[in-house]
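Posted in: Structural Biology > Protein-Ligand Complexes

Title: Requesting predicted complex, (R)-mevalonate in pocket

I'd be grateful if someone could produce the 3D structure tokens for the following input. Sequence and ligand are given below.
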Amino acid sequence: MNTPVEGFSKLSKAEKIDWIANQCTKDPVATKKLLERYWNPDPQVQKLHDEFIENTLSNYYLPFAVAPNFLINGEFYAIPMAIEESSVVAAASKAAKFWLDKGGFKTTILGTEKVGQVHFIYKGDAKKLRVFFNEIKPGLLESVASITQNMEKRGGGINAIELRDRSDKISGYYQLHCTFETLDAMGANFINSCLEQFAKTLKDQAKGHLDFSEEEKNIEVVMSILSNYVPNCLVRAEVECPVDKLVIKDISAEEFAQKFVQAVNIANVEPYRAVTHNKGIMNGIDAVVLATGNDFRAVEAGVHAYASKNGNYSSLTHATIEDGIFKFWIEIPLALGTVGGLTSLHPLVKLALEILQNPSAKELMQIVAVAGLAQNFAAVKSLVTTGIQKGHMKMHLLNMLNQMGATESEKAQLVHYFKHETVTNASVKEALEKLQKS
Ligand code: MEV
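-- Reply #1 --
Done. Output follows.
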């Protein structure tokens, strides 16, 4: 393919598929068949998915699973997860079971504040700008009354608007730094609508402000947008138990606890390890965030920024042993919604939320944080004991067998065989060949 296409988005779905199949693939007939095979048989459901984004050709499946037996603040949850990585759900389920008879997980909401900013350039006297800002602040709030009305009725709205001088970084750069309470909504649309109106009001008011010079009247709004950095939209999840309750195969409870804490400490001080450590946490977090129709890119961006809040990228989890008690916890910023967005549109998202007993955004924050902590517990537990490959390769076995074209009966026999054998690509290939020759 070496020609651009004009007006692609205006083509019908069939025309788009034709174009892609013919221009970009070796076997257009097979391509079309494949894309159609992944359509939903119910045209209404397919239409819904087609309309989520532009230029939809088909659906892209991920497994939708649940990790049961999570005891969180005394309540049981089966946590829905959408993820492709073979060991994640198994690891989460194992961690849930491990903590079940030790009191389960405890969680606390530490804050629910969302953030948005109007970034603007003002060339002039900073003191005059501050006086102007204090004067127009009530007007700024009034100008968004029609947007905030419903949110306020439910107890949310705008918490604060601040003028921030960032002209030390960029000449003339200031911000309206705004904080919001968006209740059960993730709030992106609400926040962005408020910010765009603030920007308009700011600019209009500056034009008529008598104390400003002509240059000062001409505020240049660069952009108005929410921030995915939400260090005050924070949740804590924790587990704890006496060290001697950490009964693990082939290692004493004391040694396990020590090694576990050491591993977490390493992730605290060593960025190469911290990134992988946190990636393991995000295996659990993203899977629930995705299953519940939330924006995992927003969560990822905010979480990693939070992991660097002290100037060094470090672990999101922490562990201690004090007076014979092992404690393990996470504090993580999560801006999530359980209303709006995909939550009432995508049938599987609706189901995921129903499985979680239709949580509020605060409850979902707690469940997601627990999924991250559990995932990290399972990963670090494997790392400091058997190593990660044992469990990982066992879970990956089916993928390998599928790739090697094993039949259902061969798969069943080999899954049984590898219960007590080491799984590697070579050992699986050899065992399959041996079975096929027998
Ligand atoms: C793999 O997806 C995640 C791990 O690497 C996390 C970790 O190392 O802690 C196992």
